[in-house]
Amino acid sequence: MNITRGLPPAPLASCPILTIGNFDGQHVGHRALLESVVENAQRLHGLPMVLSFDPHPIEVLRPGTVPKFLSDAQEKYDFFECLGIRELIILPFTQDLAALTPDQFVGQVLQKGLGVRLLLVGENFVFGQGRSGTIQDLVRLGVQANFDVQPVKPVVLNGAVVSSTRIRTCLTNGNVVEGRQCLGRPYRLTGTVIEGEKRGRQLGWPTANLRIPPHRVLPADGIYATLTEVDGSCLPSVAYIGKRPTFQNGERLLEVHIFDKTLTLYGKDISVSFIEQVREDMTFSTVDDLLKQMDQDGIQARAIVERYHTSFPQLSLANRGNA
What pTM was estimated for this model as a whole? Predict the structure, then answer.
């Protein structure tokens, strides 16, 4: 996949079949839209393309209100490429770009800048100054600019539209199962293993501690059945998110215990995928009470991961199929 920052010096000559968006999380709705782009590109012998923006438009339009993200840039790029997108255009989102009227955006960016042949966007797509352009405006302007517009229906799951906002809400409520269903795969976080207080090792539950970037969504505090990727291997694990209230409230961390393995992980990047919440965070009166609960948590987490692997034996953490 080719990545271009800014508009190319001349419209692309390969019949661009385009969609527009930020695609945070790459959920099942995003997948359906991108698959439609690729299918239409194959049908029309065109170039499957994505137009995205950096920084996120909200950072420019409403500073300080940007939601935490479900994915980072590289995860998006990998997802696009995996689905068959061949060209990614990243436009710097500036006040000047935000000030373009719908007519100007279509004329300057889509028609003159990219030479779009077919544009696929969601039915509720809005664009242009003050988000004033509707899908109806886009269809009308597309006719004038000599390209077709194909509205795509949103994906509905359990009676509600799948969206990045919905997934963020699920995760921050600890509902990683619904989040997984909306994403089409387990929610995944990657971080570098840092040195902790080694309290888990002293208790017989050694953990790898990860400091997660502040811009990423972190599921609600509690215990989770997880799968952890280390050096390409996918390992069953149990994870804790929180501030360890039984001891002393400290930095909020993600701590992962990998079952049946003794690994030296300091300084390594590992990825943790959340399968199901075992329980919410709790404060215990004694360390013995905590250890008893940890034993129960481990048994339950093992069983959950085993059921998950039985249901989806072909999946690895890198797999982007539905799960």
Answer: 0.90
